[in-house]
Amino acid sequence: MTATDQVSHRERKRARTWTAIHLAAANAAATHDHLSDITIESIADAAYVSPRTFFNYFKSKEDAVLGLRAAVISDTVVDEFLIEPGDDLVEKVAFLLLTVFRTTNHKQITQTEYADLMERHPELARRRFRYIDDVQALVAEFVTERLVASDGWTSAHPDESPEEAAQMVVTVAGAVMRAAMHPILTRPDLEGTDADAILHRKCAQFRSVTRP
After folding, report:
1. Rounded to 5 degrees, what are φ and ψ at 27?
2. Contact 20, 41 (CB under 8 A)
3. Which pLDDT tens digit goes with each residue over 93-147?
4. N or C: which end of the chain has fewer CB within 10 A?
5. pLDDT at 31
6. Which residues, including other chains, have CB under 8 Å from residue 207's CB and lie 6 or more apart?
């Protein structure tokens, strides 16, 4: 077996373990009225792993139920996201946040099952919202790098701190994205709604109310 085969085998094994834990947690949530009645130990037992292994894959049982992973910025986004003169930074960063937020979702259950879980356990929506905070922190670092790399931005704002500017833009863009995502994350019947279209409308609304 080559080194590449070994890596591929290890990745497949990790994927199987991740899925087993996620499905065990989702099944437990579907059969209990309260998440507090579900233990990490019971999820691990159902997935045939140890509690220690559970925490190698998920930060909490809520994350396991939802099939959430840490946010990542893909190589494609890194290559394509550039800040140009005249860009609407709030809208551009809002869509960047949405793109990165989507990388946290790797659920292996059906939309109907997912909607049922969200309706059965409203606290799961709050857990998803907390992931937006993680996404914002990750994106703020990335946007800072892009502002520094943008000759047009640095020449137009020579006295501005890129770090502070990025934090401000990401905070505002994050508020717009939250406004767009709130109904989707809190109402199971809207799961699957076109988030891009909603975010476009919210960005337009933000421009309308903040610009004369």
Report:
1. -65, -40
2. no
3. 999 999 999 999 999 998 889 889 988 999 998 898 889 899 999 999 999 999 9
4. C
5. 96
6. 88, 91
- Beta partners for 114? none
Of 17, 44, 65, which marks where a domain is finished? 65
Residue pair 138/73 in contact by the 8 Å Cβ criterion: yes
Structure tokens at 184: 């989707």
Burial class (CB in 10 A: 0-12, 13-18, 19+), 48: exposed
Of 104, 106, 109, give the one whose Cα is nearest residue 23: 109
Q: Residue 91 and residue 95: Cα distance in Å, rounded? A: 6
- On whether residue 105 sits in a domain, the answer given is yes
Q: Does this model's pTM top 0.70?
A: yes
Tokens standing for residue 187: 């109402």
- Extract the tokens encoding 140: 């703020």
